[in-house]
Amino acid sequence: MRILFAGTPQVAVTSLNYLNDAGFEIAAVLTRPDAPLGRKRVMTASPVAARAAELGLETIKSNKIDTQVTAQLAELNLDAAAIVAFGGLVPQAALNVPTHGWINLHFSLLPQWRGAAPVQHSIIHGDDITGAVTFQLEAGLDTGPVFGQVTEHIGELDTAGIMLERLSISGSMLLVQTLQAIDSGQALAVAQSGSHTYAPKILDGDAQLDFTRTATEIRRRAHGTSPFPGPWATADGSRYKFGPLSERRERIDLAPGVVHIEPGKHPQVFIGTATWALELSTIQPPGKKMMNASDWARGILTQGTKVSFA
Questions:
Q1: CB–CB of 126/224 below 8 Å?
Q2: pTM of the shown model
Q3: Contact, 57 vs 29, CB < 8 A?
């Protein structure tokens, strides 16, 4: 089966690897152009582009699938196109190019969480289960019929990064199975049914933590926005970023936003909320790198200063 692969971020690299290992003829890889990265703004290829180069695959780089890109795709004699987090819309003219159309691996259980950040919103809104589906791409936003799905349980300590890593593996296996079924004429796509929800792109402001909320709400928001853009809050006008948070239901003695350090060989750091406390695992103070909360706590204890996110 001769296919196009379209994708951009690291989470899509797993699918490219699985399709390559499964023996599909990958005619070309479509990805976003090189972009400035880091403080020095060095032009850097997308993770998918970098992997495609390692595999010796032809790469098409474009921010959008315009008439020129569509014409390039038409010359590839494609049986199908597999798309995983490409980051751009596919117009109808391009959808019509492959014989079997475009097959999208989407990291949600459609029709829940259509859009750019399904796993993140699933965690923020307290879902117990998330997953991935393969579906026939249409002009509408994630509206096409579904070929298959896999599910994953969301644990209390699972972040969006952890869940996407797990789903990239199980979802890639599903994508391979779907394309093999299409190739053999055994695939069956079922129309989506039930109510739908939307998952717009996560912005920096979505990652701000409000410690007047409940501990569970704060933990979900922190984990749903980790590792990107990263949960944060301010203390005395300075911005701090946080790693994973653990709920400590036995600690109900702290006011919202108040930081308490439990001294010891490995000091523990707690922050009060509207319900019970949250325990920090890592923290990034202003102008510094992410560090263990216990190391940060030693410095606070030595300085004799107080920090509050109230």
A1: no
A2: 0.95
A3: yes
